[in-house]
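A quick aside before the break. I want you to see a complete sequence-to-structure record at least once, exactly as it would be stored in a machine-readable document. Don't worry about memorizing anything.
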Amino acid sequence: MAGLKVWRRIQPCILRDWACSRARSSCVYICLSHGTLIFFCPAFTPDLPFWQKPFFIRAGILPGIGTLLEGAHRPGHFDGVATVVALLLNLTRADRAYFGEKDWQQLQVVRQMVADLRMPVRIVACPSVRAEDGVALSSRNQRLSPDARRRAAAIPQALTAAARAIEGGATPEPVLEDARATLRDAGLGPLDYLELRDALSLAEPRPGEEARLLVAVWLDGVRLIDNVPVRLAS
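That is the input. The structure line, written in tokens, reads:
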């Protein structure tokens, strides 16, 4: 279709990282290997970080998806995400933007921002890509030692087992405690959170609704996040 602008994958980069030629080359190489044909690399020299400018998007002023879980453990993080993504969408006028489900809360923050600001773009969720042992693919995995990478498999194992138990009718809280214990026994920690939340609002889930099990845990100094869907019984 003539004039159709589609971003196969949007990966907002922190400005100081994107300015590094190594980070830029790595991103370009990964995109090329997956068939990307067009790159949008605006040239700019930021005089101030966006959080010091007079105007930027605040995603965490009011209680909501921007202040829970990741928002609570990383204050201001989603302000940066929302600002960078809003700038990118405004500059590109993309019709569709693709975000991975691995950063589930980020996906919901972006969806809410697009809806609230009436942006003419459709946010498309892409399923998490996983290694053979179930670990969600992430650039952070490269920072793990071979032993730590092996132990990281406890994350999807714990989430999957918990999701199956809850969908089978088990009471969520004891199941979540078992999942947390599984991570501790595998040598992971500290644990920032492992919670069952409503899939869209990230509030406490209600029976019969789509939910998500979300986790953020440290492993040898590397912070890893993951999530899996859960269908709650009515």
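Two observations worth writing down. DSSP finds eight helices and six strands in the chain. The beta strands are 6-7, 96-100, 122-126, 191-198, 210-219, 222-231. We'll return to this after the break.
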